[in-house]
Amino acid sequence: ALARRARVRCCCAGVGASRCGGAMSTYSRPQVPAGSCGAISLRLAGRDLLKPISKMDQAFYFLQPVDVVALRIPDYPTIVREPMDLGTIEKKLDASSYATTEEFVADVKLVWYNARLYNPVGSVVHEAARALEKAFDDRLEALVGSCDRPAPPAPDSDAADGVPASKLRPLLRSLQSHARSKPFRVPVDYVALNLPHYPTIITQPMDLATVSSNLERGRYGTVADLRRDIDLIWQNAIDFNGPTSWIGADASTLREHTKRKFSQSGFADTAAIALDAAAPPPAAPARKRAP
User: Fold this and answer.
1) pLDDT reported for residue 147
2) Which one of 57, 189, 268, 281 has the fewest beta carbons within 10 angstroms of its own beta carbon?
3) What is the pLDDT of residue 148?
4) φ/ψ of residue 282, rounded to 5
5) What average pLDDT score do residues 191-212 get?
6) pLDDT, mean over the chain
7) Torsion of CA 97, 98, 104, 106, to 10 degrees
């Protein structure tokens, strides 16, 4: 369930008509172009988009419908013509109410739009909506990239013969030696850090040491598989700490650094990763002939 906290949740607590943001004079429901979500299924969208965003700290404002009576904001329905919240979106997903992933994304964007419309710039709720919107858009972009499988270009040597793991190690070493990568080099010790809720929010932990180990064990079939796990490191940090935290900012920096490194490498995402050939066993010593 999305409602993880016991306190009352709403989009616009304590904001009346006189404090309406006013930046958007007309109501315009966000539109998502058909096909823009690529091959993302609704099941994947719920698992990898809605659930992680709903577990972020700022999300508690948006987990339930706004109770205009309890909050004494009678003007809310006149300003926000199409209310929406993350809990309602979860129910619509469970009921198979969405025909396309684009419809789901449009409803999520509507949550942020409504919050920014009703709450003034600089208010806690307005800024929370902005932060969550960025986190959602970043995660959506990464998911679209990992799910889309366009027709591969004319085969090159990497795609045909595979990329040796030895060519990918320098790229991983550049990430491990980056000045901002220290928090991401080994698995998060949530017990030592007193973060008992970490595994409930981050369901697929990942770190650079684990990625390196997976590469050596041949667990990545293609370059895209490797990139997906590396990007998971940065996304987990942003999801748990928030995009505006120092560690979230470092993760975003490292995400861009990773993109540049892979772009410079020229390795196709579709290229298979080939394990390095094992060294041949030493030859058995020649037997001496009997005299």
Assistant:
1) 67
2) 281
3) 57
4) -60, 145
5) 91
6) 82
7) -100
* Euclidean distance between CA atoms 125 and 11, whole angstroms: 7
Structure tokens at 135: 């986190």
Provide DSSP, 81-149.
Answer: SS---HHHHHHHHHTT--SSHHHHHHHHHHHHHHHHHHSPTTSHHHHHHHHHHHHHHHHHHHHHHHH--
Who's near 250: CB < 8 A, 6+ residues apart? 180, 183, 237
The span from the CA of 273 to the CA of 163, in Å, is 5
Task: Please compute the mean of the pLDDT values over residues 51-78 and round it to a whole number.
Answer: 92
The one-letter code for the residue type at 120 is P
Q: Take residue 33 and report the two structure tokens written for it.
A: 């172009």
Cβ atoms of 17 and 80 within 8 Å: the answer is no
Supply the DSSP symbol for 222. B
By C-alpha distance, which of 238, 235, 261 is closest to 249? 238
Local structure of 279: helix, strand or coil: coil
Q: Report CA dihedral (205, 171, 182, 211) to the nearest 10 degrees.
A: 20
CB atoms within 10 A of CB 267: 23
136, 113 in Cβ contact below 8 A? no
Is the pTM here over 0.90, yes or no? no
Residues of the chain with pLDDT > 70, as a percent, come to 81
b/e map of 177-215 (b: 16 or more CB within 10 Å)?
A: ebeebebbeeebebeeeeeeebeebbeeebbbebbbeeb
CA gap 119, 175 in Å, rounded: 40
